[in-house]
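Narrative of accomplishments. A recurring question from our advisory board has been how the design workflow behaves on a single, concrete structure rather than in aggregate. To address it, we present the structure tokens for one chain from the evaluation set, followed by the sequence designed for it. No filtering or post-editing was applied between the two.
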């Protein structure tokens, strides 16, 4: 299991040993008393522009890379992508959220659970049950994505925003901008983060107010 760690949140992913994952029912869930529709759409708010002058809304893609990690400008959500997991070779994208007004579906998980969602291979997006928490997948500038070496921040360009100071600053993906490796892509927006495996149509959206697990189309 991998876990990303940044600005007060677990950013993580799951090691293959000592943990298990539990699928949740597909649909959209929010903190409101009335359940929301099973279809969720992103906000149409205008995207920001990266400090480099590169217009937000671009897709930063490199299929030769093994992994990537980023945090949102608010620092509340941090995500990772992998072209091929080391244990089974499946592509994966996942996110961890810090502050949220909703609860994850019930689970018999005895470990950390509720704030981490991933979509792996051809499986449906699911909440992860976390065991040990290594910190090698931290998207900081001084040790970028140590799980995959310094290539983890290949998408982050000089002048792009960061959170924090110095080499301990965390790499930020501007709102309206996406990172993609192979079939998996995550997009940062002011309304939350969405990740999808384009080969299967499965994915999820995640925000402070709600989450949505998207089934295959």
């Amino acid at each position: 299991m991998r876990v990303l760690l940044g600005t007060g949140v677990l950013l993580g992913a799951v090691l293959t040993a000592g943990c298990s994952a539990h699928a949740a029912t597909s649909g959209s869930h929010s903190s409101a008393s009335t359940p929301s529709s099973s279809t969720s759409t992103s906000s149409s708010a205008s995207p920001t522009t990266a400090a480099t002058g590169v217009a937000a809304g671009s897709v930063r893609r490199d299929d030769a890379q093994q992994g990537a990690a980023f945090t949102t400008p608010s620092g509340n959500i941090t995500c990772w992508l992998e072209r091929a997991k080391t244990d089974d070779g499946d592509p994966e994208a996942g996110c961890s959220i810090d502050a949220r007004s909703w609860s994850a579906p019930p689970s018999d998980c005895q470990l950390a659970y509720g704030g981490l969602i991933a979509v792996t291979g051809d499986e449906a997006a699911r909440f992860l049950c976390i065991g040990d928490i290594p910190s090698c997948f931290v998207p900081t500038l001084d040790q970028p994505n140590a799980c995959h070496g310094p290539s983890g921040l290949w998408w982050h360009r000089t002048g792009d925003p960061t959170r924090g100071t110095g080499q301990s600053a965390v790499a930020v993906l501007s709102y309206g901008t996406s990172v993609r490796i192979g079939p998996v892509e995550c997009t940062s927006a002011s309304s939350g983060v969405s990740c999808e495996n384009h080969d299967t149509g499965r994915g999820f959206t995640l925000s402070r107010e709600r989450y949505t697990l998207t089934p295959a189309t």
